[in-house]
Amino acid sequence: MKNSSVAVRSVTKTYRRGQRRVTALLNVSFEVWQGELALLVGPSGSGKTTLLNLIAALDRPDRGEIIVGGSEITGLSRSAAALYRNERVGFIFQSYNLLPQLTALENIILPMLPKRRSDRRRAMELLGAVGLGHRSSHRPPELSGGEQQRVAIARALANDPAIILADEPTGNLDDDNARKIAELLSSTCRERGKSLILVTHNREMIRPVDRVFDIRAGILTTIESVSAS
Amino acid sequence: MIWAKLVFGGFGRRGFEAIVALGVLAVAAAIVAGAMMVIEGAKGAMARAERDDRPDIVQVKSRFNRAVFETPRSGNLAPLTLPVYEPLIDRDKLNAVGGTVVARQSLLRNVVAGESFLNLYIFGIEPDKETRVSVFSVGRGRFLRSDDGAVAVLDHASAQALGVELGGSFPVRKADGQDLSLTVVGILDRLELRDPPPRTIDAPALKPDSSYVSSGVFVTLRTSEEIFGRSTVTNALVVAPAARDVPSVVEGLREAFRLEPAVFITERYGQFSRKVHDFAQTLALFTIIGAVTATLAGLFAANLLHDVYADRRRQYAMLLALGFSPMQSAVVGVGVGIATAGAGAMIGALVAAACTPRHFAMPSLMADLGTIEPRFDGFIAVVVVGMALAAVALGMAPTAWWLHRRSVAGALSEEGR
Questions:
Q1: B328 FRET partner, CA 20 to 30 A, in A54, B183, B243, B314?
Q2: Is the peptide bond before B398 cis (omega within 30 degrees of 0)?
Q3: Closest among A49, A88, A93, A53 to A74, alpha carbons compared
Q4: CB distance from B2 to chain A under 8 Å?
């Protein structure tokens, strides 16, 4: 029997743009199972990143509920939301969002600091797992885009979260690097039993995936189950 | 190490602005601390002047007795006791005015010993009250008690001139022509009589160059009344309840003695308050300089820090996204501010403490209040640090408010300026 990792129920989110309100998501519902690799696809501005932000508790929906690991997260306080992000979610940004003053290794250790941990050995292991063991002391400006995204993947895994959320992780990379990063992300999550929700334009980016959610103009239009191939 | 890098690293070109802000805060702290040190020193000078000048004391004295000058300088005359002032002051009138009356009888004993004279000042005092306005430092023996009889306390200059020691005695010719033997019960090392009579004749002196009496024999008022044969006092000090009560006390005294033109009432409060007024205006100038400097420099530093913080908004949002609590993220932000404010305030305070002159005098009338000794104290430290922290808080506030109003996702997606 499959366990629910993330359950999104009737979520609506609107933004204010000047005088008018823009609906980013309208009544979106879906569920991702534990260990599942899910793609969130759709054109630009369709609400994919908004949905990912809501699951990561980086933002709050206007309506609806989001249940992660059995807990409702939309009503969390700022502090509780921070704790939730730190313990249960690994987030990979399109623009990497590494801190330039820290080395690659320190960037991976960074998510451990809120819980007053600094497991340098685990950080080195993760850096090795993404193929950058030899660049631990390099700072982000000294790394290529692909290397920075690898560091970001390792950082997302630092606290061993159950869910990895990736927002266009290959968007800033060339095709070759994009393919390598996608493979790395896929294999890492499968090996470690993580649920992966990945936002992308390109539904061919990761193979194999378990399901594909297609969002258009804030509405979840299709949920496609994909058999491993 | 990572925390230190989070707090102090990644400024880029904004690091220069943070250093400039630190410098501005240091300069402002130095000026504010310097101005406040002068103000504190001036307050000390005023307090000292008030303590020394005692503007709350009103002096009441009668006309100087010119008979003293008529004492022949040669010949073999009988010992004589003369009043320094004509005894015209009625104690009841003094007491009716209010305030604490310190009554005195100031007498001059003229001794002929062989071919030489010895002039000696004798003061009849109320020991308990007199010690509140004058300084008597007893070297040997004890000071007078209010119930003492024919005993005396004298300073070592008078004792030496009289040739008496502790426990010894010497005669004083009374008004009735009889001699009263006074036993020495104490010898003073130091004597500072408040409002002493002028020194108009050669007599023993602790301060040889002083134009005022600086040496003498002290007996109780009761004993001096017995010597002089009268109960009226020669002079008195009236201590007002507070300095601001002096005008009303003086008015009362003038009213009480309006029919006695030979009684003079002297107060220092009027001149003292004018000096204090001038002083206060000068200090207000220092205060304004300090306040304007603190405000302008604080705003400038706050503006520089605002740029520094605004440039790091994305970093703070990133920390929140990675699971740092709002408090932990705030610590990262506040850390650099505290460090900047603390370093600026400390450097400024040290510069002020090192460069401010140890003491200086104010010009003209204010110089009478004595030298100003600028001093650094806890209050100044609190003000200087408070000013620096206020600048930091002002610089941080827009960024804190910006982060507070937005979701983490919103903060990450905006550039933030």
A1: A54
A2: no
A3: A53
A4: yes
Per-residue tens of pLDDT for chain B, all 417 residues: 888 888 887 777 777 888 888 898 898 888 888 888 888 888 888 888 777 788 899 999 887 654 443 344 455 555 566 666 666 788 888 888 888 999 998 888 776 555 666 788 899 999 999 999 999 999 999 999 999 999 999 999 999 888 889 999 988 878 777 888 999 999 999 999 998 888 877 888 888 888 888 899 999 999 999 888 888 888 899 999 988 899 999 999 999 888 888 888 999 888 888 877 877 887 888 788 878 888 898 899 899 888 888 888 888 899 999 999 888 888 888 888 888 888 888 898 888 888 877 777 766 656 666 777 888 888 888 988 888 889 889 998 998 898 888 888 888 887 544
A49/A72 Cα distance (integer angstroms):
20
Token pair belonging to B249: 């006390």
Q: What is the pTM of this model?
A: 0.67
Q: B378-405 and B269-311 helices cross at what angle (nearest 10)? A: 30
Distances (CA, A) of B374 to B27, B44, B201, B265, B285: 18, 9, 42, 36, 16
Q: Do A101 and B10 touch (CB under 8 A)?
A: yes
- Rounded CA-CA distance B248/B267 in Å is 11
- For residues B152 and B183, is the Cβ–Cβ distance under 8 A? yes
- How many angstroms separate the CA of residue B32 from the nearest CA in chain A? 36
ipTM of the complex: 0.90
Residues of A in contact with B321 (CB under 8 A): 56, 58, 85, 91, 97
Cβ distance A100 to B346 under 8 Å?
A: no
Nearest-5° angle of CA B356, CA B360, CA B365? 140
User: Beta strands A163-167 and A89-92: pairing type?
Assistant: parallel
Q: Under 8 Å CB-to-CB from B117, ≥6 apart: which residues?
A: B71, B73, B110, B111, B202
Strands A4-17 and A20-33: antiparallel
Give contacts of B 280-319 with A, CB under 8 A: 315, 318
Residue positions counted in chain B: 417
Contacts of B318 in chain A (CB under 8 A): 97, 99
Q: Is B321 on the interface with A (CB under 8 A)?
A: yes
Q: Tell me which residue of B293, B278, B285, B268 sits closest to B26, measured CA to CA.
A: B293
3-state SS, residue B206: coil
Q: B360-364 — which CB contacts under 8 Å span 24+ positions? A: B362/B42, B362/B279, B362/B282, B364/B278
Out of B6, B321, B410, name the one closest to residue A91 (CB). Answer: B321
Chain A nearest C-alpha distance from B321 (Å): 7
Cβ of B328 within 8 Å of Cβ of A85? The answer is: no
Taking CB atoms and an 8 Å limit, are B10 and A99 in contact across chains?
A: yes
List b or e across B142-171, with b for residues whose CB sees 16 or more CB atoms inside 10 angstroms. ebbeeebebbbbbbbbbbebbebeeeeebe
Helix, strand, or coil (residue B296): helix
How far B9 CA sits from the closest chain A CA (Å)? 6
B74: helix, coil or strand? coil
CB contact under 8 A, A53 and B320: no
Q: How far apart are CA B179 and CA B285, in angstroms?
A: 63
